[in-house]
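Example noted here:
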Amino acid sequence: MAISFDEVAVGTELPAQSFPVTRATLVRYAGASGDFNPIHWNEKFALEVGLPDVIAHGMFTMAEAVRVVTDWVGDPGAVVEYGVRFTKPVPVPNDGVGAVIEVTGKVAALLDDRRVRVDLVATSGGQKVLGMSRAVVQLS
């Protein structure tokens, strides 16, 4: 069921979500995206370039975060703008558990033409991993 502009207000919270990330997830994403940079799969290389471990792809992290919005609105096509700043990497240890990206969202502004701005907060391991994460959504 689509969310109506008349149903939301500034401060409306979107359902929070947690997204597990394992090394297998990163390999699948690399195959789908064509991004085989070794920082995303080779622990030795990642450590040599100063990273704490293999890290999740930034675009993967960005895509997981916006799922909070698309799941809430029910239509990925309703997202008319989306942008983030990558503030911290998401290290993904090879321990069988991996990492978790936790995302919350809140309606921050009601805009013209039945659009809303949703501000997102994405964290992993207690660190904010995306900054200025905002989506503009067209509602019915």
About this structure: The beta strands are 13-21, 79-86, 99-111, 115-124, 127-138.
